[in-house]
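Model: Ready when you are.
Researcher: Fold this.
Model:
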Amino acid sequence: MSVGDTMTSVVIVDARRQRLIEEFRKAGTKIIRVQSAVDEPGPGSENPDLSRFIGNVVHSGDLETTAAAVAGYSPIAVVAGSETGVELADALAEKLGCAGNGTLLSAARRDKYLMVEAVRRAGLAAARQTATVSATELADWHDSIGGRIVVKPLRSSAGDSVFFCDSTAESVAAFDRIHGSKNIFAVPNIGVVAQEYLAGTEYMVNTASRDGCHRICEVWSTTRIPVNGVPELADSYHLMPRTGAVQDELAAYTEGVLDALGIRHGPAHTEIRMTDNGPVLVEIGARMCGDNLPYYVQLAQGESQLDWTVRAYLDPSRFLRTYRDIRQTPRLCSVVRLIAPASGLLRGYRRLPALRRLTSFYDVQLAVRPGSPIRRTVTNLTCPGAVILMHDDEAVLRRDANTVRRLTSPDFYDIDGER
């Protein structure tokens, strides 16, 4: 395949969403892989399979050079394949004249302080917050608002270094842990963002957009529990019916957030708390949802954010004709995360056969296999796996999700040398 051959091609920057790659390939699209840094950032970036791409371009910092390298393939779209690819994808799309979100608000689509301020400026509900490089300033701000606050890096993902702090001593300790350390993308954290704690159920809204028209692809509710010293660790995700009073309110708010951040094209993953006063943004990523959740929706309901993202780029006229259509299917899905109680060498998992006998059992995904080191689960990245449930009856899913949590209590894990 030479650069000059004629075919439909797209650029994916930091292509770490394997299902998205395969979805484009299934549509007959060729993919140019762009790496946003010489040392590729982020977990899951090791030893990529380059055979799936017609080109591999490593960005060394010069936009002109990178744009020239991919221009010969005549790509019709530039897609952010992960959080780290968002800003370069914006810049390349703008440079190449592809449909994109522009660079004016690129920083706000990555920086968690700037994104909330953009939402506030648009007149939407937004959390009180501050960004600081001073532990003293953070403590003073915490004192001024009182109660629990959340302290986290300005730029990261996957629940990396998110601390729930009930006192100034805890918020200062969180600052000391974050400031000057490296995030999961190996980028130094300079300062922190601190936000008021938002009480209420957390939801995830996955979307795909074309020309500022937004498809609400799926809505998930998140269950969080106190475990392993973490006040609110994500325990499970539950796919909700497409319509309903809560879903409709979340959809309207999400569309406002997308507009506020200039997300007119492509996928987005929005996390929201439903407070007593209505929906409030936690954060948003201008890229696909992770944890394979869109893939599970695709299996359960026939289409998901994966399909709508590919359609937005490859078949915009169809997207714009159908993005408001509601395809209500009865089959729902729950994903219950495994929560390891300790670190050590994993000898095995107990009661796996009992999990497989559950009425709604679909699959168990194990990120850590017996014989491998396992880490105490305190973030998304230390989750050793998940149980996937699918069923038409929401009550059955909830019952089985509760049973999964009971069956996967701490003695489910046979760990040598626990610590």
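Researcher: Now this one.
Model:
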Amino acid sequence: MTSSSSAKSPLTFEALQALIDSHYQFQLLNAAVKFDLFTLLRTPMSEGAIGDALGIEQQPLQLLLEGCVTLGLVELCDGGYRASAVAALALAEGAPFDQRALVRFADAVTYPAARHLHAALRDHRNAGVDSFPGEGETLYARLPAHPAAAEAFDAMMRTVTRHVTARLVREIAFPEGGRLLDVAGGACDLAIELVRRWPQLLVTVIDLPWIVDEAAGRVRAAGAETRLRLIGGDAFQAAFPASDHVVFAHFLEIWSEARCRALLRAAKQALEPGGRVYLVNMVQPDAGGGFGPVAASLYFHAIASGEGRVRRWRDYEDWLEDAGFVPERRVSLTPMHGLIVARSTG
């Protein structure tokens, strides 16, 4: 077992009490997002004006505002209130780093499923999917039967993908085009951006049938249907077409080491000699990365698949070497996401 390299101060009773009350912190944030409070407070407003705009009475309004002030989401100013700098950047409509979809996903999916965390740890399975009855063993298999949760999931993934893609496309280039396979390409945001940037590139996306069905409209709207092919299927069972480049984005962290290694071997077989594989994953430093990776790992283990976790850079590089690749570089894309580029040997 490894631990984070950063030393932590001993837990205090005050910190313990805050931990016990932490569900109120999230639910207060969630309520504020549902009210769209931070969009409203991009311009300072008085308490009375806020109450009128939200349509709530004085006491609940005061609880909402007092709580948001203590959490640093809202600031006092000239007898009124305004969104804090971070809230204005991340929790308001049109904000450059809009994270509201992540809050909505936590409300619709993570929060109800997290009640099963004890069972998930005890039984070594993703017991959180018990909150979403249906066929299949993973969250992804069950989401189609739960439209509100599926919509929240899709919006969350598009938010994450948008921020990661904005940095990723500055780090990879395909000036000579070729055939690129995007495994589990989801809503096709990355694939669409790549064919837009590189006119000679042809992209194939493999993902579950219900996901590619929804993505097809986006591909048509982008005018990319002649250069972007969609295949509905299970990435673990589908035969990977011959390719010059293979991308795994936001996918390997979901699955077990054995499954990840199998996918990398399949990519090796599909690639031409000298072709490259691009891994875009949640990663943590080789020495450990604090509670953020733990929280994400609990989601993958207890809710999404029962297999995955946030792994270290070196784990992926070791697996790539074993599969016949030479890791070439690491690039940090966000505080929690990284890119590994590796070349196929032989």
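Researcher: Key takeaway?
Model: The first helix runs from residue 13 to 20.
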